[in-house]
Amino acid sequence: MTLGKYLVLAGVTVCAAVGDSLLSRGMKDVGGISLHHLSNIILCILNPWVALGILFLLGFFASYMTALSWADLTYVLPATSLGYVLLALIAKFLLHEQVSPMRWLGIALISAGVGFVTQGPALTHDPARGPSKLEDPATEMVSMGEKR
Amino acid sequence: MRHLYTWSAILAIVVASSAGDVLLSHAMKQVGDVGALWRRTSLLKVAGRILRNPQFLLGILCMTLAFYSLLFALSWADVSLVGPAAAALTFVANAIAAKIFLHERVDHRRWIAALLVAGGVVLLAG
What we know:
The structure holds 2 protein chains of 2 kinds.
Chain A: H1 3-30, H2 39-43, H3 48-70, H4 73-79, H5 82-93, H6 101-119, E1 125-126, E2 130-131, H7 137-146
Antiparallel strand pairs in A: 1-2
Chain B: H1 2-31, H2 34-40, H3 43-51, H4 54-76, H5 79-101, H6 108-125
């Protein structure tokens, strides 16, 4: 894993958290959508919060696709779950919500999960090359360099 | 009734986004390391190569379904319920799907990570 790759994972994390917060803020303005007025769900993208949220989610998508081009799905997802921690921190420090001990425990669990998965190899199976023999991140990096 | 709507929407998010994640992951492995490709050719060519991949387009379709299910769910319930519930279930569904369909080696470390993150997400909702 190079610094650039860690930056891509950070991009996935930050854009997802910010995008979701903006969508949530916007949908509260839009209000409940009834199944009888389905056109509202198309029109809701005109809400500025929703539009900005979608912009961030596009950034999320670009970095997510980049990450998936060189890492396993079961590596990228836990590795970028720090976004939930970020969301809780935004709630506490920007929105001044109360963060209960239960939530801090949740944050600790997620961080532990992230630590667990990032210790291991990023890629274990490449459909283009068959099963990988890679065991540790060091040999994996060499192989990723040679890959194309 | 509102509860039933909410949980149906959450189930739809989980199924659609897991299917989308698996399809997109498979498509991007076929495309190859985007960083390495970008160094050799233009960004437009890389984007064209990604956009021409049928699995990528199918993945996008699934993600669109997941996105609209999310908007439905958010209009019926709080993000503090919908977000963590959908995310926690999607983590577990993805680990199973990646093992079956992508043949990823989901070892103990990755199972523990997926379950820790899923558990953590549930606690965040509490």
